[in-house]
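hey so u asked for the seq, here:
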Amino acid sequence: MTTSSSSETLLRVSTISFRRQGLTILDAIDLMLRREEIVTLIGPNGAGKSTLLKIALGLLTPDSGEVWRTSGIRTGYVPQKLNINPALPLTVRRFITLSAIASTHDVENVLTDAGIPFLINASVHTLSSGEWQRVLLARALLHKPALLFLDEPAQGLDISGQDAIYALIRRIRDTTGCGILLVSHDLHLVMASSNRVLCLNRHICCTGRPEEICHDPAYQTLFGSANLQHLALYQHRHDHEHPLCDHEHHHASSRSQHK
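ran it, structure tokens below
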């Protein structure tokens, strides 16, 4: 990866439209992502967030419009769902290296970056939700991406687990300088982590800094006043970071005692 300024554009999506079975999923979407920037796509279920992320990543082809990524750029991807056959014996070490050849040293490094070095020999079937999300992040980091795509990385976690994952994502951005495109459905969850937010409902309803979006009439129409109350509460939670949740610490300690 070449050294570049934080203003370098890594990804540009121009007037993207996408249809399936006569239904418009995305309509005339524009998006730009720069180095050292976290851009978050929010919106209700069915708004087209995951579809837009997959188009930006190159997994789906739009019906019209254009996607540009810096030539030769390395990408990492954490999907919304990834099901592992429960009958398949698979350690974290083995899972992480399924998509890339890597030394034990490299695996240990990405697990350390994700805050879970103690899980290297654990079975993926014994992981808590928070541990699994961190393993998925570690797997994506193994490719040393300059562009990181994260689809609902905090799904299924309690509020402490969500805080911990988003603190980790910020730390990844700060230490690697990568650009991150993130999908969520709640602005209050990504308030402290995002440089810019796109509020999506098949088209772009509004875009800007998180603190601006919450006052936009289009956002309030989509999410209502109740969400604004949650957002106001969450804004007071930004001055600290959470480690792994208590139950995950206990989980890790139990493993250590049985080694």
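Residues 159-176 form the longest helix (18 residues). The chain has one domain: 9-257.
lmk if thats what u needed
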